[in-house]
Specification:
- The chain is an alpha+beta fold.
Amino acid sequence: MHKLCPLCNRPLGDKMVDEHHLIPKTFKGSDTEPIHKICHRKIHATWTERELLNYYHTWERIREHEEIQKFIRWVAKKPLDYYSGSDETT
């Protein structure tokens, strides 16, 4: 059984998976968690590294944001390995 993505709660699978630093690497964060590439991209398109450090450094805080909730509803309809290079992630 595959691990679930901590953002969208869908199975991760074997493709299109990144590692996300809850405390940004820029600020000496070292712990990572696997996450869908498209979910990872959405996080970094939504906040700066400083915003991630100062507030959005837990999955609960990330998921509480209205734009992320909208994204999660949208991505739930996509295949697990879906990834687009464009900014259509809303």
